[in-house]
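User: I'll paste a sequence; please echo it back and then give the predicted structure.

Assistant: Echoing your sequence first, then the prediction.
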Amino acid sequence: MLAPEERPTETPLLEVESFDKLLNNFKAAYFAVALILPEAAMIQEIEKMAQWTKWDNEAFLDLLPRFGAAPGMILQRFANLLPRHFDVRDIFFIRFFAKPDLKKFLVTKEMHLSQLHDPHANQLDEHYCRRWISINLIRQLKAMQGTQDNSGPIAGAQISQYVGTPNAYLCLSVAQASMTHSAESYSFTIGLLVNDKLKRLFRFLDDPAVKRKDVHTTCERCPISDCAARVFPPVFLQKEHHRNQTRSELAAIEEKKELQQ
């Protein structure tokens, strides 16, 4: 039906040879997801979720075998349909990747609707906030693999309150082992801005089991002083504090000079 002239035959892409090839790959992927996850059927699933008074990990995971879909496909389809049919427009989708040692978590895919939301990718090799459910689920999955033969998927929900902003997001996340290298892991997360509209849609937002956590983008920029999950000092805040202190001291010197004249 699409019949693109230039398209890749592999996934993930081994290399990006042209913009047209990348664009056609995106169109083909979107079309495939729409076929596997029909619009009407997925709207019904979202409407069923809207009636939940408690978040249910297993019921959410049951969507995967019923539709024969991967976690990322389900969550991306939600992001496609929520704006048009439920008027939920402030959305992000993010995919994390981690190697077996869990020393570094990488953002390998992201999408933002309406505005640039937190979290988002950071290109400065900083340490992403370990309070994010996206990262916590990968760590939980790794712990489960250490005690039992479990490659996932596992799911979870969290309300993430971003420190320094008025924004909180309902984050629905799924983690699973890589299909090609079982020791490596991925997580897929959709974040929905918590507002009156979202509260009217999803009743389970009031479920105490959906934990609310203060989060930030990276440890290097985070002002939370008592964070037990911190893996790196807030070096950017420390530098900013030092600059402000230097400015204050210079201003005091200038003021003293003016008084002496």
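The chain has a mean pLDDT of 86. The longest strand covers residues 168-177.
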